[in-house]
Amino acid sequence: MTRSTGNRPAEIFGYPIGNRSAEAEGIRERHWCPFVNRPCNKKSRLIDYPFGVCSAEHNGEIHTICPRRFEEQGSIEGVSRVLEDVALHYFGDFNNTIAFPEVRLPNVGNIDYVLVRHKPMKPEVEDFVSVEFQSDSTTSTGGLIQGILDFFQGRDLQEQTYKFGMNTYDSIKRAITQLMNKGIVYETWDTKCYWVVQEYIYANLVNRYGFKTDGFSSGHASRFALYNFVRKDNRLALIPSRFISTTIDEVYQAMRNNPGLPNKDEFVRRLNTKLQARLSVQFSQTEKRGSKGLR
What we know:
- By secondary structure, the protein is an alpha+beta fold.
- It has three domains: 1-66 and 136-166, no CATH class; 72-134 and 168-229 and 240-258, no CATH class; 264-289.
- 34% of the residues lie in helices and 28% in strands.
- It is built from seven helices and 14 strands.
- The chain has helices at residues 22-29, 81-90, 142-152, 168-189, 199-209, 248-256, 264-293, and strands at residues 8-12, 15-16, 32-33, 38-39, 53-58, 61-64, 97-105, 109-118, 125-133, 138-139, 165-166, 193-198, 222-232, 235-246.
- A six-stranded mixed β-sheet has the order 7-8-9-12-13-14. The protein has a four-stranded antiparallel β-sheet with strand order 2-1-5-6, with helices on one face.
- Strand 8 and strand 9 form a beta hairpin.
- The radius of gyration is 25 Å and the shape is flat.
- It starts with 7 loop residues before the first strand and ends with a helix.
């Protein structure tokens, strides 16, 4: 069936909404996350089972709204596609490499994954690289909840649309804070970190803050690993598109010199309009009180 352009869940418990296979339905009945092979951990106060929307379709584009979505299985058993891609890009292969999740970075926060290459036959670090996942978020999420409810009532969502929005700006604000705080650490340590995002989020960084459109240097500590979704075998698959690198200084200069900064004169004009509306009422009331006193 040809899908209409609209807003709806794209994947429910790991499978596209058009996939009603026995395999997909079995996963959904268990409220299972097939990407990490554990129960879904997303919650909503509006339903009494996990909020199993992995990605949402908004205006015809697929948006990852759960970081676990980046755990999609790669070609190596037990290793996600993204970690495999990062390992191949950074180390050249996956030999003697172990992935550790949720590693504490003192005084800064947690790192989603640290890929550690150990010395052959020795429990000793030879090199390591950090990996961070940045998914998106939604507004008016009740619309997505209604989509889930309709789906489990047997409704075909591929021709439906629901009222919710993407909160990409909030996602980016959180990502920028982490990029700056952690990026300074990685540059000080002379180590590297890959920030895993979809292409549209990086495009937003370019348009909103003036990030560079492309370019990669092996000396840069902060690298963006960019991904798109494609439909494959009745599933959605993450496909790497490119790598872009940057430095904290580049990020700071881009944001400082961003041509999209608001105009001060326009801001003052808006303040004048507000003042005129507010004070005209006060002046009018003062004049009325004054005129009464002259009688």
